[in-house]
Amino acid sequence: MFSYIHLNFYSIWTILRTKAFFFHFFLLIKTEYGGFYCSP
Question: Which residues are listed as membrane-spanning (predicted)?
């Protein structure tokens, strides 16, 4: 029971961490190359 909860929490944590990493990477790219496009 404990191992199942631990594995489930670890998988959720890994998914959230990868989502946060990709979101941060997307924001970094957007701010890097955002100056080339004329944003309103």
Answer: 7-29
